[in-house]
Amino acid sequence: MGTWKVQRAPHLDPRSPLVLDTHELGRRPGSMRTVQRTVKAPEDLGTVVIGVPPGTDLELDLRLEAVMEGVLVSGSVRGRAIGECIRCLDETVEDLDVTIQELYVYPERAAVAVEDGDDEEDVRKLDGDLVDVEPALRDAVVTALPFQPLCRPDCPGLCSECGAHLADDPDHSHEILDPRWAALGGLQSTYDETKES
Question: Taking Cα atoms as reference points, which of 136, 161, 165 lies closest to residue 151?
Answer without folding.
Answer: 165
